[in-house]
Amino acid sequence: MEARFDMRANEVATKFAKRLANAGLVIHQSSLPKSTLELVSLRASQINGCGWCVDLHTKEAAASGETAVRLHLVAAWRESTVFTEAERAALAFAEEGTRLADAHLGVSDATWAQVREHYDDDQIAALVSAVALINAANRLTVIVHEPGGSYEPGMFAADFY
């Protein structure tokens, strides 16, 4: 698979990507656990069929110490025993926040209550922002058919942060 368009070679796309990445910096600097952020980003990317983002978030999570078992089970988190209740609430939130067209009400009250039980206001703000941001990133890379497989952990850190 070859990308339709090289976003990194276009000035407008590069400027936009840098601003998107800088918005992500706010999330990374929050108290939301990095492992939760990577799991949520990975799950949304799986749902959206974004190979580039699945590759990126799998590798970033692994580089941060996430286990292979947990990464392999993200797609089947409901049928797994390796996630905490807080992580399960965040994964449900990510799914419902990603599948807006499938559930016209968006995130259910039950899922919202679970998230409120496990996360404080700043972490919830980061979680809401993370779901919105990863869905935007997924759309960018899926539209241009950016293939997964070539990402190296931290490869854009110097460019964006």
From TrEMBL:
Residues of the Carboxymuconolactone decarboxylase-like domain: 22-96
What Pfam families does the annotation carry?
CMD
Q: Which organism is it from?
A: Streptomyces johnsoniae
**Protein name per its UniProtKB record:** Carboxymuconolactone decarboxylase family protein
InterPro entries assigned to the protein according to its UniProt record, in alphabetical order: AhpD-like (IPR029032), AhpD_core (IPR004675), CMD-like (IPR003779)
The organism's superkingdom is given as: Bacteria
